[in-house]
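Example record

The entry below shows one chain as it appears in the dataset: sequence first, then structure tokens.
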Amino acid sequence: MKIAVFHNLPSGGAKRALYGHVKYLTQSGHIVDIYIPSTANEEFLPLEEVANNIYIFPVNYTITGLIYSTFKYAPPLVKRISLRDLENSEKKIADVINRQNYDVVFSEQDYYTGSPFLLKYIEKPLVYYSQQHPRDIETFQFLSQIPTQGESNFITKMVINYVLNRISKIDRENVSFANYILANSYFSRENILRSYGVNSFVSYLGVDDELFGPLEVSKKDFVLSVGTCTPSKGYDFILRSLGQVDSRIRPELVIVSNYVDISWRNYLEKLADSFNVKMRILNLVEDHELVMLYNKARLVVYAPYLEPFGFVPLEAMACGTPVVGVQEGGLRETIINNKTGVLTVRDEGLFAEAVVEMLSNNKKRESLVLKALKTIKEFWTLEKAGERLLNHLNHAIDLENLDVND
């Protein structure tokens, strides 16, 4: 099979998932070519390592694009990026793909618009993986109301809400052109149906168990959390919860992030001081360092707001480290409560109690680790995830052939 893959992702879990999918497909003998705009992140897990070819299309910054975007779409979100210029680049990508003999196109999301403009222009069988969706727009609007020591004013919040609403409309328009949509969890599938009014299929992701695995290292006195250092990841909740743990056994909190919002980091540091919780924030660590941290941590604590899927619990489970998480979003599907990890409602006291129990109950911790490792091997590997994706790619091709024959 010859597959064209598109993405405009930043670093993070979605890019790691795509890297794993491409790796599986090429190792299975398929031809995989990557098409990306120049705004895509290819420093984190570069796909050229696992794909057959990669083609990068420049996103030019034009005055006409800037004016058009400001009034038709939304004001530029970052310096030297206009959505009109981005759309022109993705249209050129689609034109090139349409002229080639690809069997199917696999599209990931776009950091700037959610669903990419590319979906409007592809004329081949296409599978679109919608890992985030308008649910996140609502969450971000809610989280923008969280105080950050007075660093965001009313006007700033109004502008943010305006831009997010405009982008949400673009997202909904673009996704209307996708006939075959994948979701990373049933929680995500329900949100896609609620937000877009369209059907999707669940294709669970997997963790690279050749990279993430148990090591013969000693545990240290810290708990670990992983993800962008932004309000959506719930680190403030974790700090408040750890503040309720007896200071004699209270562990240090280590946060590993691929992106740090400075104002939010400052807020977390003040919050940690107020609760007398030791905290370290590490930015952009290498994979081998991340695996070592997973193995050395006594627990992984994870409390994002309505996380669609949640790679972090699977990576922790694969490394043999138990997880305490919040019973929301996709975590209810990746963690089986009291079997492969522990879930609580979003209550600082209950979360703190779960942390204390896991720190002190060696028998339960060992039982969870054994079951988690077994579950990873049976269901959550890259190979299993790749097989699931490949079935959907073939199904999308079959459906397209049926439509042509009719």
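Notes for this example: Residues 135-146 have pLDDT under 50 and may be disordered. The CA atoms of residues 9 and 111 lie 5 Å apart.
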